[in-house]
Amino acid sequence: MNAFATDDITALDASALSDAIHTRRVSCREVMQAYLARIHRLNPRYNAIVSLRPDDELLAEADACDAELARGKSGQGSRGSKAWAALSRPLGWACRPPACGTPG
Q: Cα(86)–Cα(28) distance, rounded to whole angstroms?
């Protein structure tokens, strides 16, 4: 299924990544694997991730998202927030752009 190399997946902006997932050019599992590989490769040097859930838990969530897509539930629209949360939590983000970093 994957039409992208790992580095290509992590280089996609949010719109392109969403499009790739919803057109089935890449699975949620592949996206999670790509980001986890990047974290494991870079975090020892930068020590930027404070807390990261176990890979198997995160991959199980990605599999659940893939199963929803297979049942025709796209995750777009109001459900897009859930998909963003599933991807952003392991990266340590507490909000969705552009809200991140804006005064509240």
A: 10
